[in-house]
Structures are given as C-alpha cells and as structure tokens.
Design goal:
Mean pLDDT: 94
Strand content: 35-45%
Helix content: 10-25%
Structural class: alpha/beta
Strand order of the largest sheet: 4-3-2-1-5-6-7-14-9-12
Low-confidence stretches: none
Shape: elongated
Number of domains: 2
CATH topology of the largest domain: Rossmann fold
Number of helices: 5
CATH superfamily of the largest domain: Thiamin pyrophosphokinase, catalytic domain
CATH architecture of the largest domain: 3-Layer(aba) Sandwich
Distance between the termini: 32 Å
C-alpha cells in the first residue's frame, strides 16, 4: 500500500496526480487538498482538517462524498498535515508521498519539512517524500545511499537538519566530497549534479535533508 496525501498548497505547484494513482494508492486529503483531489477526479478515502480554506458549498460536497471525514476545530496543537501524517504512519504503508505542502506560506512549508524529522516519523522507517512540480524532498539518517540520474530533477542538494552532519562523502558527483564535516547552515552541498547514471552519498552522523530540483 502507498499513501498519497494532498494538502492545500498552491495548485500550480501540484503535479498531475493521475501520474501517482496506482492500484495500491490510498488517497488522503488535507483541508483544501480534499477539494483539489475531487476536482482531479480522485475521491480520497479520508480527509483531515478544520476546513477553514474551503467555501461552505465546497465543504458540503466534501462532507457528502468523502467516506471518512476527520474534522477538527481550528484551535488544536497539531497542524492538519500532522494529523493526516500521524494516521498514515499508523497504517504502516510502503511509502507516503505528500503533495501541496510546498510554496505559498513559508510557515506551512517549514512546518511540513520539520515533520519529516519528527522522531516518531523517522523511527517508522517509512519512505516519505514531499513532491511538487520543481522539487522532491526527503530525509535520510546515517548510511550509504545510491541515487539515479534524473534529467527532470538534475540538481541535488544536501542540507543538515541537525547541528551537523559528519563523514559526508559524495561519489560520482560534479563536486565530490570525502569524509567532510558539514555544519548546520553550510551551503557547501547546494546544487550539485551527478556525472554519470548513478552516484552515492554517505555520512556517519546527523540527519540530512535531500532536495532534488529543476529550474
């Protein structure tokens, strides 16, 4: 099972959702993202949110058509996305892909990125990605990872989300590294590129945010 979550970020940044609509896909809408899904011809199995970003008519349609509606008051400790992601983690899917979580409000973007390093989410071991038309974002813990060349997302950036990342090594990259210490705030690993069909990045300590992008 693969869970796809659609939030209410700018519609122009959300790729065609049909490209991700496989047989094992479970769709979840978050706030206005529920309406985006329905407008795309996809009926989500669940919806989460306070729904303060939809009109009364849109909410009425959502309440009528969505099988499982989890509606919350605006005054709560978690964001709508966090509530949806917590539920998704509990289902133990193969992967979770999140759309509509970038662009627009910076506080929403930063909160969604920070969710990726929430301990309970990291400990789940589930592959989680934020995807929009220009970027794919995910988090990695210490280890060695192989990445494939993708002409649609040719730039690869690595950013520490802990005080530092140690032992950073990049092989088969335009700008290689060997056992480097990368402190929080460093721009050393921004906008790199693969020089072959595959490359490898590895590190021994810290948590790394990986961003694959195109212009």
């Amino acid at each position: 099972m693969k869970i796809n979550i659609v939030a209410g970020g700018p519609l122009e940044l959300i790729p065609s959702l049909e490209l991700f609509n496989g047989q094992q896909s479970v769709w979840v809408g978050v706030d206005r993202g529920v309406y985006y899904l329905m407008e795309s011809g996809i009926l989500p199995e669940r919806a989460f949110g306070d729904f303060d970003s939809v009109s009364e008519e849109e909410l009425e349609m959502i309440e009528r058509k969505v099988p499982q509606l989890n509606k919350f008051k605006p005054e709560k400790d978690e964001t709508d996305m966090e509530l949806a992601l917590n539920w998704a983690i509990e289902q133990e899917p193969e992967s979770i892909t999140i759309f509509g979580a970038t662009g627009g409000r910076l506080d929403h973007l930063m909160a969604n990125v920070q969710l990726l390093v929430k301990p309970v989410i990291l400990q789940s071991g589930i592959q989680i990605e934020l995807i929009d038309k220009y970027n794919t974002v995910y988090v990695k813990e210490p280890g060695s990872y192989k990445v494939a060349r993708n002409e649609d997302l040719k730039y690869i950036s690595f950013l520490p989300v802990t005080p530092s990342v140690s032992g950073m090594t990049l092989e088969n990259f335009k700008y290689p590294l060997k056992d480097r210490h990368i402190p929080l705030g460093s721009t050393l690993c921004i906008s790199n590129e693969l020089i072959g069909d595959h490359g490898t990045f590895s590190f021994s300590e810290g948590i790394l945010l990986v961003v694959r992008s195109r212009d």
